Amino acid sequence: MLDLLLENISRHIHLSDEEFEQFSRPFELRKVKRKEMVLKEGAYCLFEGFVAKGCFKVYYLNEGGSEQTLYFAVKGWWITDIDSLINDVPSILNIEALEDSEVLMISKKDKEMLYEDMPQIEKLFRIMNQQSSVALQRRILSLTGKTADKRYLEFLEKYPGLEQRLTQQQVASYLGITHEFLSKIRKKTSLNK
What we know:
Helix content is 48%, strand content 22%. It has a domain of 113 residues: Jelly Rolls. The chain is α+β, with helices and mostly antiparallel strands. The protein is built from eight helices and eight strands, in the order H-H-E-E-E-E-E-E-H-E-E-H-H-H-H-H. This is cAMP-binding domain of CRP or a regulatory subunit of cAMP-dependent protein kinases.
């Protein structure tokens, strides 16, 4: 598990073996059962989590009570509610395991201590936050400016193989469409292959 974490952060910064040991020490492994919530709307998010195994969905409930999925976090992805974590406000997000999963979690307090002790960790999380901002911007542009057909194709490209692990309703929630409309898109896409 720590090898996967090292591989993930090595894309952004270099740490010696001793530095990685210091960095990884405060992370705690949490095993999460399918359908278990690691964050519920209204709670305060006090962690960032690195998905070592499984799959999570990060979503909120809109005014009509329907689920709106922001993203899926699979092996090698990070989960948190950055607004709640940074601004110390109740979360509007829910983070739920879609499969039996394992996540390495670090508390806000421990992360702040790493910033003080290891300046390169602040650089790491700055780079990761910048990449998250880019991904969020692209997601907003996709939702507001692209057809559902194009969003579906982007989903397949962004999450290869994930569609088989999700329900049609979960995919539709991510795309911002009904599952009936998703069926039509899938049918049309399979005819065009």
